[in-house]
Each structure stands twice: as structure tokens, then as C-alpha cells.
Design goal:
4 strands, two-stranded antiparallel sheet, mainly alpha, 2 domains, globular, two-stranded antiparallel ribbon
């Protein structure tokens, strides 16, 4: 399924986008008469891959053991994401201007830390014989921004070193990595359209709206910010077509079977500093398409396991976390720290869920045994709709720090509404595990508590207006 259906669709979306951004850069170079124009980096949205797999597709499969349904739910989420991204190209700037930067950055930072960094770091230290040295190679070159002789990519060096280590371990019968994906016969695997109507009318995908809707908005806002950084680097691309093609690439991929949205990448400045111009975008798209359309990905993983290059993903995740703390005012960093917690809660909940399933037990029998040693029900509730919870609490805390209690109260009202309909905090335990609980008045204790919090913040607003000496400077 992955090699024959998903990867070919991914290849088409990546190639489509990269060719457009290369053409866009060529046009800018021709109109401006410059030879230093660099195309916008573009590809599959790495954090969203892990969010969709871990938070949508895996829970569906665990509940139904239907791989096709899990795949279709990923396609549904990607399709809606593409629609949101395309529509947002015309209006997203309003949300960017009215929402605190900390609230926009910390959900993605939490997602990166929990789902990009931790699992891969654990994998590196589980297989140190083949993964630790390549990780240090990548850390040394990325961290120091070292340019290797003849501009050899550091990722290629790590892959070669890892491949040599794997070969030596196999020769001496010391190879203990998990089994790699089975090989398919070589050939051309072309994308095929899927029945989007059938996927849409099932309605199952809307159970995960609290995951893919905020991710879609956040991804578009991040893309907008990337365009701003590209402009500062000297390459001024028009906003609407740049964002619109990103959404269209996601839609094209979903129509062909891709379960993962595309996005603009950070790193334009680094590419520009390393001499990349227009051709790298074309080469990247063509190379990705060649790997995905020929079924070579499993073959590559057989010789160079994912753990060898895992630190590439780890570094990307750490950079996202660091950016969240660097881009906001120093007084707002505490809001970033608070906003990361819901994503960690969701990740830990999945780890506990894995342990429970591997032991042959179920949540309904195990959860009460935690008692006071672990507030398991609170951890589950905090992780339900974690992206929205992260955004809400970070935004509210920023406005509180800025002594703008009216705006903070508004965010608490938003939380009350979302919890009332079950988009955050609401869940139920069943023999199949943790299930989303959408409806009306499904989490009344949270709804009423958020309403009380909004009223308190309104009282703070009124008190602050009438008491000039209310604050300690």
C-alpha cells in the first residue's frame, strides 16, 4: 500500500510543487535581472506526517484493524487540509495579526518535540552501533554550519558511514536492527486516483477535526511567515500564488492517494548561503519522484536503515522548538513552555496506550489502577485536542502577561465552546481504547470551568481599568 499507492501520490505532489517554485524563481530572476535568486524549499510536511500517522491513522487502525480505512482517514484529513490551505491563501493574514506569536508557534514546537524528536532519539540510542556516529556527524555539521570539501552534503556522508557500519555488522553477524520493509519487484508505480466521494461521505474523518483543522491553519501561517523570511533574504515572491500552490499540491496528492499535506520549508537562507538557486528545487523534486515512483524506498532502507539518518528529522524538530523560543519576546517564553505540555501529554498517553495493548490489557481495567501515582485521566483529557489546547493556553497566558485581560477572557470563552462540543478534553474509555467524544455538553466540568475563568478574567479587566495601582512594576 505504501510503496504502490501512497508514495507515488506523494511523488506527484512534491514534483508538482517543486517545479512551480522553480518556475517562480526563474521568473523572478528574469524580471529582476539577478542571478542569485533561490527557489522556496518545498516538500511533504514532516511534523504533519507524524501527527496524521500517530493521532489519526494509527488510532483508526487499532480500533478497526482496517488498513484501508486508516489510509482513507489520512487522505480525508489531507484533503480538508488542502482545502483549508487553498482558501486561507486569501485571508490567513488576519489570523496571523490577531493571534499572539507564541500561540502560533508552540503547538508546532510541541508537536516537533514529542513526535519528531523523542521517538527518533530513543531509536538512535537503541541502535548505537549504526546510528550514534551518523548522528554526531549530522550534529557537528548542522550545529557548526560546516561546509564539507567539494560541498559534499553532510546527509550523504552520514548515509555512507551508516551503510558501511551496517555492512560490517552483517559480515560479523552483529546486525540486530528490526526487520526492514519487504522488497517489492522493481518497476514503475504510477499514482492512481482514489474515490474521494466515498471517503468524504463516510463522515468518519470528522472525528479528528480537532487535529487536522488547527494543523492546517498553523501550517498556512507558518508558510506565510516563511515567505516573510524569504522576502527579508532578498527574494520577494507574491504571497497568494505561493500559498495557493502549496494547497493545490496537497489537494492533488490527496486525490491520488497521498495521506500527507505539503508545505513550504524553513531553511531558504541556508540554501541561499550554500549557493542553491533554482536547479536544486528541480533536482529535489525529480530525485524524490524517482525514489517514490520506482519503489526504491524499501530497497534503500534495507541498506541504510532509517535510524542512520534519523537525526535529520531530530534536528529539524529541535530547530522548530528553538525557533518558538527565539521568535517571541523574552517575557512570552513561559507561554511557549506551557503550550508544549499538552502535546507531551498526548505523546505520553500514546506510550501508555502502547504499553497497555502490548500487555494484553485494556484501558477500562488498567486506568483505575494508577490511582494517585499518575493523574492518568487528567493526562488523557489534556491530550485530547492537544493542538487547540496548546494554542488556547499559550494565547491566554500571553495576554495575561501583557495585562490584556479582555483578550485572555475571549480565549477562555473559545475553550469553553470547544470543550462543550467535544473538540478538546472530551473522551471516553472503551475496550478499544481512548475514543473521541463529539457532541453537545460532553465535557461539562471543563466547559463550566472555562466559563468561570472567563468571568474571572473579565473581573480582572474591570479591576485593572479602575485601579491604576493594581500592578507591581
Amino acid at each position: 500500500m505504501v510503496t504502490g499507492r501512497i508514495l507515488p501520490a506523494v511523488a506527484f505532489s512534491i514534483l508538482f510543487g517543486n517545479l512551480f517554485y522553480a518556475w517562480q524563481a526563474h521568473r523572478l530572476a528574469r524580471l529582476s535581472g539577478r542571478d542569485d535568486v533561490t527557489a522556496i524549499p518545498f516538500g511533504i510536511n514532516t511534523p504533519t506526517i507524524f501527527a496524521y500517522i500517530s493521532l489519526i491513522m494509527l488510532p483508526v487502525y487499532e480500533r478497526t484493524h482496517d488498513a484501508n480505512l486508516a489510509w482513507h482517514m489520512g487522505i480525508f484529513a489531507s484533503l480538508v487540509s488542502g482545502i483549508v490551505q487553498s482558501a486561507s491563501a486569501f485571508c490567513i493574514d488576519w489570523l496571523r495579526r490577531t493571534t499572539p506569536l507564541a500561540a502560533l508557534l508552540c503547538p508546532l514546537a510541541g508537536l516537533a518535540l514529542a513526535f519528531l524528536c523523542l521517538g527518533f532519539i530513543f531509536g538512535i540510542f537503541q541502535t548505537p552501533a549504526v546510528a550514534l556516529l551518523p548522528a554526531v556527524i549530522l550534529l557537528a555539521t548542522y550545529g557548526s554550519r560546516m561546509r564539507l570539501p567539494w560541498r559534499i552534503p553532510s546527509g550523504l556522508v552520514a548515509m555512507v558511514v551508516g551503510g558501511i557500519l551496517v555492512m560490517l555488522l552483517r559480515v560479523f553477524h552483529l546486525y540486530h536492527l528490526p526487520p526492514q520493509p519487504p522488497l517489492l519487484p522493481p518497476g514503475i508505480y504510477l499514482p492512481r486516483p482514489v474515490n474521494l466521494y466515498r471517503i468524504i461521505v463516510t463522515g468518519e474523518g470528522w472525528r479528528y477535526a480537532s487535529i487536522f483543522l488547527p494543523l492546517s491553519l498553523l501550517d498556512t501561517i507558518v508558510s506565510l511567515q516563511i515567505l516573510e523570511s524569504v522576502k527579508l533574504a532578498g527574494d520577494d515572491y507574491p504571497t497568494k500564488p505561493s500559498l495557493l500552490v502549496n494547497g493545490l499540491a496537497t489537494l492533488v496528492g490527496a486525490a491520488l492517494g497521498s495521506a500527507f499535506p505539503t508545505t513550504l520549508y524553513i531553511g531558504h537562507n541556508a540554501h541561499k548561503a550554500n549557493g542553491a538557486r533554482i536547479g536544486y528545487s528541480i533536482l529535489g523534486g525529480v530525485a524524490s519522484a524517482a525514489l517514490c515512483l520506482t519503489g526504491l524506498v524499501p530497497a534503500v532502507l534495507r541498506f541504510i536503515p532509517l535510524e542512520v539518518v534519523a537525526f535529520v528529522v531530530v534536528w529539524f524538530g529541535l530547530a522548530m522548538v528553538a525557533q518558538a523560543f527565539q521568535e517571541v519576546p523574552a517575557t512570552h517564553t513561559v507561554a511557549i513552555a506551557l503550550g508544549i505540555v499538552p502535546m507531551l501529554a498526548q505523546w505520553v498517553t500514546q506510550i501508555v496506550d502502547l504499553a497497555i495493548r502490548k500487555s494484553g490489557a485494556d484501558w477500562m481495567s488498567v486506568a483505575p489502577r494508577f490511582g494517585g501515582e499518575l493523574a492518568i485521566y487528567g493526562m488523557i483529557a489534556l491530550g485530547q485536542g492537544a493542538l487547540l489546547v496548546s494554542m488556547i493556553w499559550a494565547a491566554a497566558l500571553v495576554w495575561i502577561i501583557e495585562r490584556r485581560f479582555l483578550q485572555a477572557s475571549a480565549w477562555m470563552l473559545v475553550a469553553a465552546a470547544l470543550s462543550c462540543f467535544g473538540l478538546i478534553h472530551a473522551y471516553q474509555l472503551s475496550p478499544q481504547g481512548i475514543e473521541n467524544r463529539l457532541g453537545w455538553w460532553v465535557a461539562p466540568e471543563f466547559t463550566l470551568s472555562y466559563l468561570a475563568a472567563a468571568i474571572f478574567l473579565l473581573a480582572c479587566y474591570a479591576y485593572a481599568r479602575n485601579t491604576p495601582t493594581a500592578f507591581v512594576n
